[in-house]
Amino acid sequence: MKEIEKLFQNEVAVDGSKAKLLKYKVVRTPQSVYKAIPGRQKYRPTQKTPISNFFLAGSFTMQHYLASMEGAILSGKLAAERVAEYAFASTLKNREQCLNEYTCEEGRSRSKEAKAA
């Protein structure tokens, strides 16, 4: 109870003069994270996969932290960066195709003229 009072000083007091804690349970999960042993890092997948437009996020992926909330958050950020890179690269490919045909609008109209002739 002292620890809770220390964390929530404005809400809880040990003497019961503030909010009263009626019921609680401490849950301990000793094996809640995988065992960090040398050589395991290489088995973690990256956020980018060999499958086009398919990305991974989660504490199990390649990032700097163990399997934790922090690792999951960092992995999500890294996955978002990969998605953004993929989207940007796709946009550039479309732009290149349009530039090869002068501009998108000019290219479309000229290709229609060529087909009609």
How many strands, which pairing sense, and closed or not: the largest β-sheet? Answer: none
**Helical amount:** 40-55%
Radius of gyration: 27 Å
| Structural class determined from secondary elements | mainly alpha
The count of helical stretches stands at 3
- Identify low-pLDDT runs: 102-112
Mean pLDDT: 75
Question: Which term fits the overall shape?
Answer: elongated
Cα separation of the termini: 86 Å
Detailed description of the structure:
The chain has 117 residues and is mostly helical. The protein has one domain. It is 44% helix and 0% strand. Residues 102-112 have low confidence and may be disordered.
What topology does this entry show?
Elements: H1 2-7, H2 69-100, H3 104-116
Highlighted features:
elongated, single chain, mainly alpha, 117 residues, 3 helices
Summarize this entry quickly.
This protein has 117 residues and is mainly α. It has 3 helices and no strands.
